[in-house]
């Protein structure tokens, strides 16, 4: 009886893979449009119809190039304009803030989900640390609490507080607007968010790996104990255990070759690789898995709009249960 049910589930997941491959993920690239499209009166409706309703990403070349920030912001500008500004920096020994790491315990090596040490410092010190190649730690401004509007209000005149066509299409204003700036070695591990995301690169570039939510069965999850890095800058770096706290996290890092042998099912996941350059925007739909790398001192901002907890969300939760994730 149980085997029969398992076979039915496996068959159903196979149907999902075949259908999505044949009907949706037929093109290996994320579609790209020009910013001029977004200037047309019917764009919010077309954006909604062609991308949001279909839960499909799109790159908008030049989508934020009209922000004064694109021609102004870089590390030199911040050194002159806001050298003493106190910034909250995520510091890690390996570049993975909110990622996996190994801790040696009396039980042997244990894989943890580790959060960064958060250190406040003046902007000029943050930039100096990124330029110092001899240091043993990696810095990233990546606080996702609407830190652009909350912590950098003096920079708001160089950007927009919302993306007007996106607010119109989503019929809401952004829940958070975040500021990101960091080292080329800082990596955001594969995860998904319950947000519609308009991601704008201001300086440098970001490399995204995107995986559709329908490929959840091929994205390996495991349960990890949770910890936080401590004393990262003092060479005595250790992982402080959160005492019993556990989290389900994605076990694979697509950049690590040995992970592909360890998780062979991952080869069935559709991976879109896309570089977003200065002045470009990415619409990253809710629940899409994403892994992000960047150029050195890359600056970006993103607008998170709450997702609609609609039928797609309900189907996703069912798929989670069926695929045992
Ligand atoms: O830029 C990054 O490093 C991560 C971006 C991200 O995860 C997000 O916008 O949800």
From TrEMBL:
Enzyme Commission numbers on file: 1.14.11.63
Keywords: Cytoplasm, Disulfide bond, Hydrolase, Iron, Metal-binding, Nucleus, Oxidoreductase
Molecular function in Gene Ontology: 2-oxoglutarate-dependent dioxygenase activity; endopeptidase activity; metal ion binding; peptidyl-lysine 3-dioxygenase activity
Source domain of life: Eukaryota
Cofactor(s) needed for function: Fe(2+)
Positions of the JmjC domain: 144-320
PROSITE patterns the record matches: JMJC
UniProt keyword Cytoplasm present: yes
Locations listed in the record: Cytoplasm; Nucleus
The keyword Nucleus appears for this protein: yes
InterPro entries in the cross-refs: Cupin_8, JmjC_dom, RmlC-like_jellyroll
GO cellular component: cytoplasm; nucleus
PANTHER family, alphabetized: BIFUNCTIONAL PEPTIDASE AND (3S)-LYSYL HYDROXYLASE JMJD7, HYPOXIA-INDUCIBLE FACTOR 1 ALPHA INHIBITOR-RELATED
Protein name according to UniProt: Bifunctional peptidase and (3S)-lysyl hydroxylase JMJD7
